[in-house]
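INTERNAL TRANSFER SHEET
From: sequence group
To: structure group
Subject: Sulfatase

Please process the attached sequence and return the structure record in the designated field. Keep the field labels unchanged so the import script can parse them.
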Amino acid sequence: MENYYTSSTLLLPLAALNLVSCNSQKKEEVRQPNIIFMMTDDHTTQAMSCYGGNLIQTPNMDRIANEGIRFDNCYAVNALSGPSRACILTGKFSHENGFTDNASTFNGDQQTFPKLLQQAGYQTAMIGKWHLISEPQGFDHWSILSGQHEQGDYYDPDFWEDGKHIVEKGYATDIITDKAIKFLEGRDKNKPFCMMYHQKAPHRNWMPAPRHLGIFNNTTFPEPANLFDDYEGRGRAAREQDMSIEHTLTNDWDLKLMTREEMLKDTTNRLYSVYKRMPIEVQDKWDSVYAGRIAEYRKGDLKGKSLISWKYQQYMRDYLATVLAVDENIGRLLNYLEKIGELDNTIIVYTSDQGFFLGEHGWFDKRFMYEECQRMPLIIRYPKAIKAGSTSNAISMNVDFAPTFLDFAGVDIPSDIQGASLKPILVNEGKTPADWRKAAYYHYYEYPAEHSVKRHYGIRTQDFKLIHFYNDIDEWEMYDMKADPREMNNVFGKPEYAKVQEELIELLQDTQKQYKDTDPDEKEKVLFKGDRRQMQNR
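Return from structure group:
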């Protein structure tokens, strides 16, 4: 074999060698970044230590934030699983992408960012929770949870993988990571990749991994200051919801207050349907872990606020234990990327489909435009463009994710995408551009249905929140977020806020025009596609 350094090579003019060197550097500079879009279901900033939460430590999520950027004002535009996912994929609001509620079916023929990246040469994958009730499009490989109407099971979950149904043995959070690493191992290494890595956890009914069962049994978590909220000064929406820890959490499905013997006497019970998926040794551990809880409850000496506090502790113990496996598996994936030398070449995003109530206002679940569930976690690591330890208070929304990915990939952002690229913020240490939006827009449609949260829309600015509840009621709420961050004091209609109120209503109307939500009260066309009978814990 001829030696690479032939005489002709050695005689190349210095200028030519410099040109080769410059071209090589140029190719390295324009390399498209890989993208890993990590998303969980119902994970909230209160349960992340990088957001200052005091409930749990999340070291691997914290690593992404510490080595990248943390967004403090990122908001879901429709705080519900399927609608949020549709908004993320399309970069469009629910009234534009057609997926307004969880009774919808996603029209996969429409434009999505994975399709655009795939067309631009990316190798694409979707692994984990999809929950859009249609076959994924725009992916070279997909493996999505299919059990419980695509909600998925924690134990021995069913998957729909590239058109085939399979059952995997093990715990869902671990399995989804295994599948993600397998995709990365077998990928075409000549192409950049975009992988959507989406966990089921920590969604209801909060079943921890075997290694974490009972891990918080002896932990007492701090209660939120408004756990016993009486909704004074607020309207029917807060009072008529069906998502309270006191009344809505079920003894069997949610609190696990059912023995194996009792489940075997009623094998139609929903808890048994997921319990039976566990291996017998895990069932034995489960029984041991929950025996004390069952015995404590059945003493019957818990009443009133003491019972609410007790239920809150059980809820936290299960919810937070499922988060532990999520954080561990993020660590696994980061370590794998580091091992193969792709960590710093990859934009790593961690978010959730929305936030979640952890006892605030006495609630669990999401749906409301109130801060705990409208606000989403958003942390991003990409050292080639993002300064480590950055934070941003720019008003951002989940419709911004698609244009951000396209922008970093060097792909033209279609004019019909309604979100805005976050790249100008990311490359400028989190600073808000002078011409950035003044408000996040929100619109929730799913009523009457699970949890009875009334339809509403509104805007969130840096300092205020304005909400209009409509359909079966006509009520307004406004909150001074600086003076009242827990949203306990509705100031709509108060004289001292009259000027601000007028300005916010005008801004709301302008925002609706901008995003083409021309019939927000659904007077001409009802957009909700379901009813109470169809909606089961989705």
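Handover comment: The CA atoms of residues 404 and 421 lie 4 Å apart. The longest helix spans residues 304-339.
Transfer complete.
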